[in-house]
């Protein structure tokens, strides 16, 4: 690519990305790490919120995939992308893929730990495809999140590449104070439902477990958060209802 045409500014990337007639570059987000993104890794374990939560302050933490948005077709598309990569890499079959998949909570984890792939080389291949035909803004969800008076955070097993990709498409790129996402540099993969992932987020927030309200669609993640004492809300394509349940639990009237 001509250097004069290279996208170097984050805002220019977002504008270009929004142009659906443009060919999709699967690594468009790879070189960008927004300032409010925190990759869950041992090198970042010392980081803390700039403004610590008050002792009586409730905090809302949201999962991303199938939680703040819901799209079954995207799930199928992602699986197909991971399967194609698996077959190309291993020369094995879909049945073999199913077996490996059953032993791992995450495709990225499977490729890194079982096949010694480098996370920062395959993150965009299997975790950040062209989702422009699958996702768009949901005005009702966006308005609900925007109107919450609570501090809001995102806690996802997606990489920074995937997370930026999706949040931009659904219009929530600036909705969260911090975005906790899977790391693409260190070998150790600290993700939900592993206890260290929840502890990382809790330590960063500097909040008492009873003040954290966690929304996720995965029962394993719900179980992991509950074991740390977080308030949990299992989302099954009913995010708005679960948000109302959480608001009621802390006294109501917490939206603008």
From TrEMBL:
Record GO terms (molecular function): phosphatase activity
Annotated InterPro entries: HAD-like_sf, HAD-SF_hydro_IA, HAD_sf
Pfam families assigned: Hydrolase
Organism, scientific name: Enterospora canceri
Name of protein: Pyrimidine 5'-nucleotidase
